[in-house]
Amino acid sequence: MRWEFIWPNYVIFAESLVKYFHTVPDGRYTAENKPFNIKKMTDYIKIRKGLDIPLNGSPEARVLRDVVSHTVEVKPTDFRNLIPKLLVKEGDKVLAGTPVFADKMRPEVLFASPVSGTVSAIVRGEKRKLLAVRIDADPERQNKITEIPELASLDASQVKALMLAGGLWPCIQQRPYGIIANPADTPKNIFISGFNTNPLAADYDFSLKDDFDSIQKGVDVLNKLLPGGVHFSLNASTQSSSPFHKLERVIFHTFDGPHPAGNVGVQINHIAPVNKGEAVWCVDLALVAVIGRFFEKGIYDTTRLVAVGGPCAKTPGYVKCVPGMAMKDIADLACQDSEKAHKELDVRYISGSVLTGRNVGADGSLGFADTQVTFLSEGNYHEAFGWAKPFRAKHSVSHAYFSWLCPKKRYNMDTNLNGGPRAFVATSEYQKVFPMDIYPVELLKACLAGDIDKMEALGIYEVVEEDFALCEYICPSKIDIQSIITAGIAVMLKEMA
Amino acid sequence: MNKITDIKWLHSTVDAFDSFLRVPNTVTARGSHVRDCNDLKRIMIVVVVALIPAALFGMYNVGYQHFRFLGETAGFWQMFWFGFLKVLPLFIVSYAAGLGIEFASAQIRGHEVNEGYLVSGFLIPLIVPVDVPLWVLAIAVVFAVIIGKEIFGGTGMNIWNPALLCRAFLFFAYPSKMSGDKVWVAGLSQVDGISGATPLAHAAACEPLGFTDWEMFSGLIPGAVGETSVIAILIGAVILLWTGVASWKTMFSIVLGGLCMGLIFNAAGAEGSYAATVPAWEHLIMGGFMFGTVFMATDPVTSAQTETGKWIYGFLIGAFTIIIRVASAGYPEGMMLAILLMNTFAPLIDYCVVSRNIKKRLNRIPSNK
Fold first, then answer.
1. Which of A38, A212, B196, B297 is 20 to 30 A from B183 (CA-CA)?
2. pLDDT tens sequence across B285-298
3. Which residues in chain B have Cβ-Cβ distances shorter than 8 Å to A419?
4. Is residue B346 part of a domain?
5. Is A446 inside any structural domain?
């Protein structure tokens, strides 16, 4: 055979090898630089670094009750950097969908009441900071009805105006910084994570399966804002059984691996990382359904299934409720006393997951975007010779303990810090649970120093607190890592805005 | 306990003992509500456990060398007991001086006492000659802890490995107490005309090493207390790697760097240097090479902190060690100086590695391409 005939085969073979190794294993290409056949097959990305925290009390797929709230709170503190401007006063009657406060910087961004009723209290904290608007709910919800024209006839600005007026704009979060998106912007991409890998998180395939049509509608609305730019991520292990693989007009990505594979920040970092001067938008899946319902029926309906779990949950499951629901309404689902010790148990009520949620207390309420509630016992006890015991009934990723010998075991964790605060020492541990192309310790130190140029160079635009939650969990120096990022973002917002 | 905790001005000290005996009852205030049960105390104690084989063997070897050079015979326990009594004062002085300063500086700053010195205090007796005068050791420890660590802000902030800094201080400030043949074997000052020289001293003096490979591997040679036995050190290495406390990348690349540089010298040869003709692999079992590789260079604070940086950092330590051993007349051992040198340059290595990440991020912006 002559040389010329063989040669092209080699070239084709080599090219296909290069493409294979270039695209499949780490999947680090940008949306602009997709491999040749990306439109046909979904884009598979393997996340190797991370950790699924083996916490006890995962919610079972059953609805425990339909919570009828007597008081509901709307909280400006659910949003970063928001200065609220109050629109109601005590005694005012509101409908579900009536705006109760607005963003002082952008008065067109409104925040609506999820229920109808009477404003019973304006809760203020230090320096009269507005903490919450408390509303006594009517037994039967009265909706504020908005006339919605046919979606196909609307353009982007009309969709924006409807969303702003309807109180839906706060559903859209922007990266960098994790703040409410600027309605004047056009984002580079819109990202929706179709699954949640947080410890004891709600299984969206169960909790949102009845909302499929609303979610499709919501996706269509987002497509109006950025045609063809809605990215949707599925979990590789449940991809085919998930109802959401049937969604249309989205760009699918499949993520495989432990937490934080479901975090939208990690997904953005692998699909099309945020650069300086760019903004991408992300919307939680439950909020996509809220947007969809608004455009279907013209009502502001935030009802969702919320996972209730944790070591102190009596019967882990789901409840149907609205954001702002008082924790008192589900307090009976938490174990109030320890059966063994016959004493009252200190329960921590967390709106959100154990990694990123907020400790709201028994008198608190569910956060705006939260889809889970976790009950933990407070770890305010001394453990004798804790660190010196060869075997210890607590979980550790480190092989310095032996919990790695029982990978299936789940733990009744509590809130004990398990040590005292120190400086950064075990500096290479953090990268093991941080699946982004960012050096975590270097970025954290730039935040501690308040060095804007360094923070920018090291990737502050690509992260929010939740991305560092696992670093904080494993940190042997017990550093409040998420607070460092909060402070870093606050400096950036102050200096760059 | 309540009465003791009333002593407010001593609260760091009280806290230190309290948290040594029991885990504090503090709960998470912000961020992640649950935390891994691993803490620095556990990490440090793992390193101490990994050092125990080397320490025990060192004690035995001190007795073994003593009786061997005196030409007397002695039983195992007799040799161990002799060595134990010789080495114990080193531990006591090291911990008393070092922890005293740690507690005092934590007290002054109002911090909790860091546990970093648990390891440093254990390392120091293992890397000094057994006959070092205790007052000299105390001064060196004080220097290392204050200048090497506390002025930078304590554990986690230091640039150089404190234990190595202590040895370097001894080495340069009291050369007469640190060099020569006799310091390496306990109790030799009573007898004259006997050489207790280490293999490296022989190599530097262009003499045959005087020890078989097995003796060097098992550790029955004169040398600093804990550095001689490669077997005991490897047991420690297994513990450190198994628990993930030390980086295998650093260890592996140091060995690689040492072997490469040794082979280069073997091939090229050096005029008048016997050390250049020692087979490359024999360098690995001589002197403090293995001890430095496993316990000193892997310190997560002073080593390179990026994964790529660890390869460069380790390789250069191995290479510099052999260069110093072979090419410098004054220093038969190069491990200490190589590690301290690379400790100094580790931030630079990290800077270069991180700069690549920064550049990559800038290149993503289309207008910067």
1. B297
2. 888 899 999 999 99
3. 23-24, 35, 39-41
4. yes
5. yes
